[in-house]
Amino acid sequence: MSALGSFASAATTPDAATTPDEYVRLKHELAQTRARTDKKRIEARQLISQRDGLKSDVAKDSVEVEEKQLILEETLVSIKRLKEQIEVAKGEKDVLMKKIEK
What we know:
The chain contains 2 helices and no strands. It is an all-alpha fold and about 100 residues long. It starts with a helix and ends with a helix. The chain has helices spanning about 5-10, 20-100.
């Protein structure tokens, strides 16, 4: 029998070698161990829940960043077109100014 098996049997049923006080002590120790285990399980579930929430937040943020990158690229293209139009307008203005001077 394994050490755990002998501990479990000693903790659950008193035998000839286990005194009533020892039995009570072992039962109390077992209850404390189970309480610690339950607490750790709850903490683990909370951490898993937090992790899953953060993963969801990261996914949403990634989508938002991609959308903003597309908007930025479109804005940069628009700015480039506007600059080109400004240059064309300046050229046309210069031509008109020369015609007015003549």
